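Good day; I would like, with your permission, to put a structural problem before you. What I wish to show you is a protein chain and, alongside it, a tokenised description of its three-dimensional fold. Here, with my thanks, is the record as I have it:
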Amino acid sequence: MDIYRKAVTEMLKDPKFQEESERLSPQATHLTGDALVKGYPKGVQGTPEVVNFMRKVLTEKYGVTFQ
């Protein structure tokens, strides 16, 4: 995990990554470390209907299974 975290942190500093990221997802926020761990749950909250819809899509389209 330490190697992964370091790689992502360095990637976020790369001007080419920043440029491409802004092109693909304008004004997207990129989090790492504790900010990601604390912020992630807020980004994936949704109504039960949205959660069920996403589960269905992920299962049918990508074969993801949920327990």
